[in-house]
Write a structure and sequence with these properties.
The chain is an alpha+beta fold. 29% of the residues lie in helices and 17% in strands. The chain starts with a helix and ends in a 14-residue tail after the last strand. Its EC number is 6.1.1.9.
Length: 118
């Protein structure tokens, strides 16, 4: 119910942005993921794939692969213990002269940071 409320309020935002950019899509074929017809097709596809043994349901953590640019499951991750380095990044506190220090093993994430919540 809450997803449908969200869609009603914000659903057209991305579509309108794409239209303003001049995309020439066939908008008559646009669907929302949870539209009844589309949702039923997805469920049917998953059932068929499961029955054929091509997919399974399991409890596992999903990790993001920066090199593959996709999600990979724990089953696809090869674990190895490696020595690492802890980096300390100082973020200036807005409107003040002091800093908030955050420790990370992945300093490359600094460039994606836009805010810290404490």
């Amino acid at each position: 119910k809450r997803v449908w409320q969200w869609k009603e309020k914000y659903g057209g935002t991305i579509t309108n942005q794409i239209k303003r950019l001049g995309a020439s899509c066939d908008w008559s074929r646009e669907h929302f993921t949870l539209d009844e017809q589309l949702s039923q097709a997805v469920i049917e596809a998953f059932i068929r794939l499961h029955e054929k043994g091509l997919i399974y349901q399991g409890s596992y953590m999903v990790n993001w692969s920066p090199s593959l640019q996709t999600a990979v499951s724990d089953l696809e991750v090869e674990y190895s213990e490696e020595s690492g380095h802890l980096y300390y990044i100082k973020y200036r506190v807005a409107g003040r002269s002091d800093f908030l220090t955050v420790a990370t093993t992945r300093p490359e994430t600094l460039f994606g940071d836009v805010a810290l919540a404490v």
